[in-house]
């Protein structure tokens, strides 16, 4: 693309360089993280939760790094509250009012989960990339992931049909997705491949 004004051309070229530099930095960091994976005791959990649609390598590493040991939570609801994906509550006496999500805990993990939850807007399916990630995983993990995908795709459509805003529906899906991730993490640590 060419602009007639030299200043506009300089700004455009600067933006193009910024994007190129950011992409190179992302690639470098991904390579470094990949190199560190074999020595990490939570690497099997990272591999297993990639069975979920919307949870590729970086999202998986981010969530596992921010949560740590999934076993420290008695149930998925505690984990959802820990990451701030549960509704805030304002209570006084007999009145109980619920607000938006509490946004407690790691904003980084919450954002990664919500970004991944956007993929459940589409029909349930296994893409070639997801299929490649599933091949080495135990059948128990695959089954949990598929059950989760079917449920969350249907739930997203149901929430949208009920008039919920896209961001509200996606946040609800992220909360459910975390429950399935917790189940997969539990299966991965109980039966390491």
Model description:
The chain has 193 residues and is mainly α. It has 2 domains: 39 residues; 149 residues, no CATH class. 63% of the residues lie in helices and 7% in strands. The protein has a two-stranded antiparallel ribbon. Strand 1 and strand 2 form a beta hairpin. Helix 2 crosses helix 3, helix 4 packs across helix 8 and helix 5 crosses helix 8. The chain is globular, with a radius of gyration of 20 Å. The mean pLDDT is 93.
Mean pLDDT: 93
Based on CA atoms alone, the radius of gyration comes out at: 20 Å
Largest sheet: 2 strands, antiparallel
Low-confidence stretches: none
Give the termini separation: 51 Å
* Strands, total number: 2
Order of helices and strands: HHHHEEHHHH
> What helical percentage do the residues reach?
55-70%
Strand order of the largest sheet: 1-2
Number of domains: 2
Q: Please work out how many helical segments DSSP would assign.
A: 8
Q: Proportion of β residues? A: 5-15%
Structural class designation: mainly alpha
Shape: globular
Task: Please summarize what this structure is.
This protein has eight helices and two strands. The chain has 193 residues and is mostly helical.
Which helices and strands, and how do they pair?
Blueprint: H1 6-36, H2 43-49, H3 57-67, H4 76-82, E1 87-92, E2 95-101, H5 107-117, H6 128-134, H7 139-161, H8 166-190
Antiparallel strand pairs: 1-2
Helix pairs in contact: 2-3, 2-8, 3-5, 4-8, 5-8, 7-8
Tags for this model:
two-stranded antiparallel ribbon; globular; mainly alpha
């Amino acid at each position: 693309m060419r602009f007639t004004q030299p200043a506009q051309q300089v700004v455009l070229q600067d933006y193009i360089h910024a994007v190129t530099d950011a992409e190179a930095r992302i690639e470098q960091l991904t390579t470094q993280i990949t190199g560190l994976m074999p020595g990490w005791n939570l690497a099997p959990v990272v591999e297993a939760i990639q069975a979920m649609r919307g949870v590729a390598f970086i999202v998986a590493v981010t969530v596992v790094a921010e949560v740590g040991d999934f076993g420290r939570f008695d149930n998925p609801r505690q984990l959802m509250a820990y990451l701030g994906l549960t509704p805030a509550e304002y209570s006084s006496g007999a009145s109980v009012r619920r607000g938006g999500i509490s946004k407690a805990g790691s904003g980084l993990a919450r954002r990664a989960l919500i970004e991944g939850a956007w993929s459940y807007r589409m029909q349930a399916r296994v893409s070639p990339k997801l299929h490649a990630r599933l091949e080495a995983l135990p059948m128990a993990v695959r089954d949990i992931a598929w059950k989760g995908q079917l449920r969350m795709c249907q739930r997203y459509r149901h929430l949208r049909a009920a008039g919920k805003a896209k961001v509200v529906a996606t946040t609800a899906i992220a909360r459910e997705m975390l429950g399935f991730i917790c189940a997969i993490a539990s299966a991965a640590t109980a039966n390491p491949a």
